[in-house]
Write a structure and sequence with these properties.
The structure holds 2 protein chains of 2 kinds. By secondary structure, chain A is of the alpha+beta class. Chain A has one domain (18-415): Cytochrome p450 (Orthogonal Bundle). In chain A, 48% of the residues lie in helices and 11% in strands. By secondary structure, chain B is of the alpha+beta class. Chain B has one domain: Alpha-Beta Plaits (2-Layer Sandwich). Chain B is built from 2 helices and 3 strands. Chain B has helices spanning 15-19, 44-53; strands spanning 2-5, 36-38, 59-62. A 3-stranded antiparallel beta sheet of chain B has the order 2-1-3, with helices on one face. Classes of the chains: A alpha+beta, B alpha+beta. The A-B interface holds A 73, 120, 123-124, 126-129, 353, 355-357, 359, 361-363, 365, 369-370 and B 11-15, 17, 26, 28-31, 52-56. Bound molecules: protoporphyrin IX containing FE and iron/sulfur cluster. Residues 72, 80, 107-108, 119, 253-254, 257-258, 261-262, 265, 304, 306, 358-360, 364, 366-368, 371-372 of chain A line the site of protoporphyrin IX containing FE.
Chain lengths: 417, 65
């Protein structure tokens, strides 16, 4: 196994007290990468509820549930915008003539009040009603993927099921060619892997995505079909028809948010199932509990870490923060906070309060949560229905990667074929 | 029993409707459609569960008698 080097530690700014410094590299911390949620539990016990780490350029980490809940809803204090639209057009103007449009992932990178008008056109496509209509086709797809490996008695689950399922569902929803799935996956992996992105590097990566998508997006403008791209062409943003620039902004976000998340959620869940045979047995007997099981899985293994920018010099939970500093919403820790979830490390199907914030809270709350929930639940149901007891392969323990998405890289399972 | 909902803060989680679509109707965009509900007798427990399920904590049960 290779352990990558930690990023260099930067000096602590004067306004940060020694007591709130905690050395944690959110991309490379070795214990975190080895077994992410075990390390999170350790930090919930031993790290300050809000701390500053010198790694990756220096930034805040919000650990307690309260800190995350308050910060995600206080859009005057914590901003999602790495630049305002005005700043962005200034950058665009400084580029040589003929430079392509710089995509601006929307609505995730814009604060209220403008946020709402970019989110609204997407809201209906991702509403529970629309998503429910997809259930049958998702179930068929999940069944096919699992049946393909059932007879062999083992599989690397991420490549066999967890990756292809959400990607195919999503490409179909967007109306993109499923045959090019490998190209899309490679781009997502590349985009997610860079720990400290130079702004220009990330812009170049976004350009790769828009280049890959452009033909299909333009095709739908004149030949609308029953998919999201066609629907977005027909939508209006703030009373104006959608432009190609708007489309590219939406596409980069949906591309990144829809492809890399669900697969990792499925991975964390199935890894837990593989170590908890009693839970498998119970759910095979009473499958109507899979919905609850899936919610507790999201709480126990919350896995995204959304970034924020401090919007003004301020005091937050007794700490001085300065405008422009970065703060990470460490949601995996929030959902393991014993103040809100007693015995947080216990996976408890009967837990009274399962109201987790795996999809965050506040205006940026995940737009794809209904789709994600349907996919997670169906995969769990079909795995339990189609396979006998499955376990981790003792010879090949699971591997993980960490960052804004805490993901499962490989998950080798075995069962009696 | 009554339910009061701070409708303007709803972010469309639909967790309330997942508990009871009858008590917590959503509009087409997936946001809560009402800001007050009279809870029919016998549904008090479901009303409380729906309120607890809201991640934004904007559903309030008004106990009265
Ligand atoms: C289990 C899977 C998923 C998890 C855990 C998850 C988590 C999250 C979180 C935590 C946020 C908030 C980010 C922030 O506050 O900055 C978010 C936003 C978002 N998610 Fe998801 N997500 C998942 C699946 C999906 C899927 C399948 C889609 C499909 C399109 C999606 C689309 C979005 C969009 C568009 C936003 C931005 C919403 C806004 O800014 O208003 N997500 N997601
Ligand atoms: S659970 Fe809360 S935020 Fe969600 S739809 Fe219901 S009222 Fe709105």
């Amino acid at each position: 196994m290779t352990t990558a080097a930690l990023s260099p530690a930067v000096p602590k700014p004067a306004h940060v007290a020694d007591a709130v410094v905690y050395d944690f590299d959110m991309f490379q911390d070795p214990a975190y990468v080895a077994d992410p949620h075990r390390r999170v539990l350790d930090m919930v016990k031993h790290a300050p509820p809000v701390f500053w780490t010198p790694r990756n350029g220096g930034h805040w980490m919000l650990v307690s549930h309260e800190a995350n809940f308050v910060a995600s809803r206080d859009v005057e204090a914590f901003s999602n915008g790495f630049a305002t639209p005005a700043e962005l057009s200034a950058i665009q103007l400084r580029m040589p003539p003929g430079t392509p449009h710089i995509p601006f992932p929307l609505p995730i990178n814009i604060d209220p009040p403008d946020h709402g008008k970019y989110r609204l056109p997407l809201q209906r496509v991702f509403s529970p009603k629309t998503i429910n209509e997809l259930k049958d086709s998702i179930r068929v797809l999940a069944g096919e993927l699992i049946d393909k490996v059932a007879a062999q008695g083992h599989c690397e689950f991420m490549a066999a099921v967890a990756e292809p399922l959400p990607v195919v569902v999503f490409l179909k929803m967007l109306g993109l060619p499923v045959s090019r799935m490998e190209e899309y996956r490679a781009l997502v992996a590349e985009h997610m892997s860079d720990p400290t992105p130079d702004p220009m590097d990330s812009i170049k990566k976004l350009w790769k995505i828009t280049a890959l998508l452009r033909d299909d997006v333009l095709l739908r403008k004149d030949n609308p079909q029953d998919d999201i791209i066609s629907m977005l062409w027909k939508a209006e943003i703030d009373g104006k028809p959608t432009t190609l620039d708007d489309m590219e902004n939406y596409m980069v976000l949906l591309f990144l948010a829809g492809l890399d998340t669900v697969m990792n959620g499925i991975g964390h869940g199935i890894r837990h199932f593989a170590t908890d045979l009693a839970l498998q047995d119970e759910l095979r007997k009473s499958p109507e509990q899979v919905g609850d099981a899936s919610e507790e899985m999201l709480r126990r293994y919350t896995f995204t870490v959304p970034p924020r920018f401090v919007k003004k010099d301020m005091e937050f939970m007794g700490l001085q923060m300065k405008r422009g500093e970065r703060a990470m919403l460490f949601l995996p820790a929030a959902d393991l906070d014993p103040k809100v979830f007693p015995n947080p490390d216990t996976y408890d199907l009967k837990r009274e309060n399962k109201t987790h914030i795996a999809f965050n809270a506040g205006p940026h709350r995940c737009l794809g949560s209904h789709l994600a929930r349907v996919e997670l639940q169906i995969v769990y149901e079909e795995m339990l229905a189609r396979l006998p007891r499955f376990r981790l392969d003792p010879a090949k323990p699971p591997t993980f990667h960490c960052g804004h998405v805490v993901g499962v890289s490989t998950l080798n399972l075995v069962w009696q074929a | 029993m009554k339910i009061r909902i701070e409708k303007a803060s709803c972010v469309g989680n639909a967790r309330c409707a997942a508990v009871s679509e009858e008590l917590f109707p959503l509009n087409d965009d997936g946001y809560i459609a009402v800001d007050a509900v009279d809870v029919p007798p016998g549904m008090e427990q479901i009303a409380r569960r729906g309120a607890r399920a809201c991640p934004e904590r904007i559903i309030f049960v008004v106990e009265e008698e």
